[in-house]
Amino acid sequence: MIKYIRKPRHILRLVKYMKKFGDLIYTPETASGEAITKVESHTPKIEAPDKVKAGEPFKIRISVGPHPNKVEHSIRWVELYFEEEGRAFNPILLGRALWTPVYAEPEVEFTVKLEKSGVLYAVAYCNLHGLWEARKEIKVEK
C-alpha cells in the first residue's frame, strides 16, 4: 500500500509561484519587454568551428558586448557548458571566467577537446540585467 504524505498549504503555494532557474535566463528568443533592448549588448557571442575532429584541441572564444564596464554596471562572469549527445547527465562545465570591472574586458578563449557532437552553451552575468545565454551546435567527426 502506498501512502501519500500531504504537503502543508504554504509549501504548495510556494512551489506554485517559484520559477525554474532556467526561466530566469534571458535569450534572444525569450527576451521580452525591456529585456529586448538588452539582447545585443548582453548575449554572449560564441566563436567556434562548426565541425571539429574527435580528441583534437580547438579554440572557443566567448565575448560579450559592447557593454559598459563600470563598477556599478558590468559583465562579471561567463560560464561555458557542453551538452554531449548520448550522455546520461548533462551539461558538462567546460570553463568559467571572472572579470573585475573597469580593468578587464568580457572576452575569453578556451581550448577544449570533445569526443562527441553536442551543443555549447555560454551563460554571462550582468550585475544589473541578470543572466544571458547563447548556444552553438558543434559536430565532432571521428
From TrEMBL:
It comes from the Archaea. SUPFAM superfamilies: Superoxide reductase-like. Keywords: Electron transport, Iron, Metal-binding, Transport. It comes from Staphylothermus hellenicus (strain DSM 12710 / JCM 10830 / BK20S6-10-b1 / P8). Residues 36-134 form the Desulfoferrodoxin ferrous iron-binding domain. PANTHER family: SUPEROXIDE REDUCTASE-RELATED (PTHR36541). It holds the Pfam family Desulfoferrodox. This is Desulfoferrodoxin ferrous iron-binding region. One of its GO terms (molecular function) is iron ion binding. The lineage of its organism: Archaea, Thermoproteota, Thermoprotei, Desulfurococcales, Desulfurococcaceae. InterPro entries: Desulfoferrodoxin_Fe-bd_dom, Desulfoferrodoxin_Fe-bd_dom_sf, Desulfoferrodoxin_SOR. Belongs to the desulfoferrodoxin family.
